[in-house]
Amino acid sequence: MINPRLDDLHRRIPGLRLETAPAELEYYGRDWTRRWTPAPLAIALPANAGEAQAVVRWAGAHQVAIVPSGGRTGLSGGAVAANGELVLSLSRMNRVLGFDPVDRTLTVEPGITLQAVHEAAAEHGLAYPVDFAARGSCSIGGNIATNAGGIRVLRYGNTREWVTGLKLVAGSGELLDLGRGLVKNSSGYDLRHLAIGSEGTLGVVVEATLKLADPPPPTQVMLLALPSFDVLMQVFAQLRDRLRLEAFEFFTDRALHHVLAHGGQAPFDQVHPYYVVAELAMEGEGDEAAMLAAFEHCMGQGWVSDGVIAQGEAQAAQLWRLREGITESLARHVPYKNDVSVRVSAMPAFLAEAQALLAQGYPQFDVVWFGHIGDGNLHINVLRPDGMDDAQFVAQCEQVTRILAQTLQRHGGSISAEHGIGLVKKAYLPSTRSAAEIEVMRGIRRVLDPYGIMNPGKLFDP
């Protein structure tokens, strides 16, 4: 190797895989934001926790910044390495380390994909219930770093609820064993929960113990066409009150347009402005009748214009594809994304204000809305017109985002529901967190990362 620092790293950890080829730097140095030009020093791919810890200790001694890297499916620039950082990729650490049938836990390395965790749980007749469209490429370490949510938060909560133990290599180089799988533990601060959602700024997750659940009950999937945005919460309330909702996802006609253009079959003969995919637990004989009664009530109230109930698993998957295929179908447009949340009770007032704001701020852009209405989370995607300069496009979008952040602040919301802050939303963190809170977070970061090497520049500045 030509770089003396990398020569030293290789001597200290002889078995460590290091990549410096331009194609590898490009591949590992960016995430799905595609906004920054990757320029990492190198890519370190440890094979185990010991190698990962040795890399962090070396980085602290040499003052080399580290960007922890999982599946890099993030949308906030949290895994971007654009300033000579060492990317610490956990992709080789992708094994299942153990299953405990009594505690019903699965211990895994951080580079394992969410899909592989689902499959490993299923082998033992259980389920890991966190789920979203990027399941085949995102990693558990990345899910933990952003406290990922997804399509079943309404029923099962975020990643945080399913992590019973973590091993974290802090920025100091110390290996911390957090939580240890205990159901009850009131012995001081829960550092496990500090690590979850910290976006790699406190350390690197090298092992996780995940709680498993009973397999989900039989479910029924329905797609509903809605005449207006205003009736979303009424439909949600009806289904929630009459049945057990597993998921409740909405998207607009523009979202459906892009999914169908990407490959798919139109669900209805005519286009409707809004759609809902709902998945409902069918646990008893009365659930089918309750579902039909709720549907008929919504139709009678004029809240639903049309609907289809899946006839079998294949059609259910087809209906879900209309929702889960949105992000993939938009990727070629390099959209500017907002991922926001408010309390469910505040959703109607916020929606009315946000709709007016975005209509005024983006009159010339194609704006695609979708999200997890049942847990107060909206995804707003603004598509860059063909031929428009990227810098000009981002500058226009950020003018509106500043106002959107102020709107969220008035409604007690968050500028990041589940994608993290990273680089993209750093300027808007004060709309969600007070100055006192941010200063406390800085203090925690200084303790766990005394050398300032862990994902610097992300979340907030020093």
Explain what this protein looks like in three dimensions.
By secondary structure, this protein is α+β, with helices and mostly antiparallel strands. It has four domains: 4-92, Uridine Diphospho-n-acetylenolpyruvylglucosamine Reductase, domain 2 (2-Layer Sandwich), CATH 3.30.43.10; 96-211, Uridine Diphospho-n-acetylenolpyruvylglucosamine Reductase, domain 3, CATH 3.30.465.10; 219-327, 2-Layer Sandwich (Alpha-Beta Plaits), CATH 3.30.70; 334-438, Alpha-Beta Plaits (2-Layer Sandwich). The chain has helices at residues 4-12, 22-28, 49-62, 114-123, 140-146, 153-156, 191-195, 232-242, 253-261, 285-300, 313-324, 326-330, 347-361, 390-410, 435-448, and strands at 17-19, 42-45, 66-69, 86-89, 96-100, 105-108, 163-170, 175-178, 203-211, 219-226, 245-252, 274-281, 306-309, 336-341, 366-372, 377-383. It has a seven-stranded antiparallel beta sheet, sandwiched between helices. Strands 5-6-9-7-8 form a five-stranded antiparallel beta sheet. α8 (232-242) packs antiparallel against α10 and α13 (347-361) runs antiparallel to α14. The two termini are 32 Å apart. The mean pLDDT is 93. This is FAD-binding oxidoreductase.
